[in-house]
Amino acid sequence: MARTATIERTTSETQITLTLNLDGSGICNVQNPIGFFDHMLRSFCKHGLFDLSGTIAGDLEVDQHHTIEDTGIVLGMCFAKALGDCAGIYRSGSSLYPMDESLLRAAVDFGGRPYLVCNAELTGIPLVSVGANGQESSFQTDCFDDFWNGFVQNARCNLHLDTLRGRSDHHKMEGLFKAAARAIRAATEIDPRRGGAIPSTKGIIV
User: Fold this and answer.
1) What is the predicted pLDDT for the residue at 134?
2) Is 134 or 12 the better-scoring residue by pLDDT?
3) Is-contact 174 160, C-beta < 8 A?
């Protein structure tokens, strides 16, 4: 049985459509207008072995907050839909990920109770880049928490993200995306010993 989901969210601020395959090979084919954010989603897919496709558009003339947070919301909704009742999955997972001078940790539980603890230790200074057209662009680092909060509230999971040490905001965020991907992959994979049972003493994930 394919564990896939397509979610479309259209508001006065954003227009986002994503299709997720939990059991993919790490292919990310998303039209994303924010360069660094695109890099993060591609890293997430590659390390989680999730396939993700779709389009992201939003009111970037305001700022990046609406677009990044709403993408987290839609991605979380995709995970919730693809997982269904969570029958047979491991449910929890964790990852310790080193990236040069930074060391990052992620731990997740798809137990039905949304909660985010994010200690990314970012400076809040935007990352600046120059596109192929020579135009300068940036990534609002203060939107990092917004993305993950949108994700956990809609995936209905408990996620802890911690920077244990590090200097570069780029490395901290990328390492946390990779750590989260690996933790989420471990949690959402099918446990062959569980025999399709719900991974909760309650008999239901709520």
Assistant:
1) 65
2) 12
3) no
28/37 Cα distance (integer angstroms): 12
Q: Which two tokens stand for residue 56?
A: 């992201």
The stretches of the chain forming alpha helices (DSSP H) are: 35-48, 65-83, 144-155, 169-188
Count CA within 13 A, CB hemisphere, residue 147.
Answer: 22
- List pLDDT tens digits, range 103-122: 999 999 999 999 999 999 99
Residue 206 confidence (pLDDT): 82
- Name residues whose C-beta falls within 8 Å of residue 54's C-beta, 6 or more positions apart in sequence: 6, 16, 17, 18, 19, 30, 31
C-beta of residue 103 within 8 angstroms of C-beta of residue 172: no
How far is the C-alpha of 34 from the C-alpha of 130, rounded, in Å?
Answer: 12
C-alpha 74/C-alpha 155 separation (Å) is 9
CB atoms within 10 A of CB 175: 28
What DSSP line would sit under 42-55, residue for residue?
A: HHHHHHHT-EEEEE
What is the C-alpha separation between 142 and 22, in angstroms, rounded?
28
